[in-house]
Amino acid sequence: MRFLQDLTYEEVEKTVLDCGMPKYRAGQLFSWITRGAKYGEMSNIPQSLKDFLVSQGYNDEPVRIIRTLESKLDGTVKFLYALQDNNVIEGVLMKYKYGNTLCVSTQVGCRMNCAFCASGLDGLVRNLASGEILGQIIAVNGTYGAGTVGNVVLMGSGEPLDNYDNTVKFLTNVSDPRGLNISKRGVSLSTCGLCDKMRLLCDQGYTPTLTVSLHAPNDEIRKKIMPIAVRYSVSEVVDAAKYYFNVTGRRVIFEYSLIKGVNDSMDCAKELARLIKGFPCHVNLIALNSVKERGLAGTLKEQVEQFRACLEKLNVSVTLRRSMGADIDGACGQLRRKFIKAGGGE
Ligand code: SAH
What we know:
This protein is an alpha/beta fold. The protein contains eleven helices and 14 strands. The strands form three sheets. It has a ten-stranded mixed beta sheet, with helices on both faces. Strand 4 (77-83) and strand 5 (88-96) form a beta hairpin. The radius of gyration is 21 Å and the shape is globular. The two termini are 23 Å apart. The structure holds S-adenosyl-L-homocysteine. Residues 112, 114, 116-117, 155, 159, 190-192, 213, 255, 257, 286, 288-289, 291, 331-332 line the site of S-adenosyl-L-homocysteine.
């Protein structure tokens, strides 16, 4: 299925010109699309242009919010969205002092099957179209007001670089100054470490903040928790991150979720520090959010703190992330699963 929100500004312009209309119509149409308007609401767009778009199969509502849950602890809001084919995805709006960040999905399900993650439990269902990725932001702005979403992290369900073409089209659209105009620095892409695609991304001129889910300091441990580690070694992942830094000048962030008894020893901390020594990067620690079906537990608070202190002592730039929305099914993919298992229904 195709969506109006798939279209880049240039594609809108081409469509307008193909219909024999003046160029300024492109600005009007793109602005409506960016605000999530339905065909019926586009009051200054000629009916013939709308008819043409409909005849080309462009749907005007890729994503619809069907459920909203607000955390009483920290104001975090979790959304369930329905897609046109009745698949369901989820997202999270996190409120920080410096603005709101929306966590966005790039696939329905995921085929990476990391041992701790809820998103991969049923494998990959399908890729999201770029308009369905963008549509999540537009739907939230539509409910909470234009400009609500200031920053975006591609950390919802799915592996963005496994849906490369739609993800980069999304990156182009989300930062278009004529559209949502979210700064490139305000967009983070998180990957489990698809090295070839990490290199391709910067070679093609895309410069989101790159977050790499490392979760282990060596291949032995990484292979136990991330099947992708069989394809790419830890040193290949770090090399690709260095390449990204050299090409873009953007500091890469390594995600490290601490799993009790798996990757949380002080030896792991020291090995991690050795691995990234001399590379100007940053490490984000978080205690694993336990997913019932996965049978792994998060490291206890005290040891998390020791792990952090150990890295800091070894001159690693490190922060401990708070787990947000703990009372509303914080961990990736959990809310969606609960909804589907309960038989869906709105
Ligand atoms: N496919 C992308 C995005 C995944 S979700 C990636 O692998 O980076 C974003 C982050 O949450 C990743 O670092 C992922 O490994 C992590 N994550 C997934 N499930 C988690 C859980 N239950 N607890 C803590 N972190 C989790």
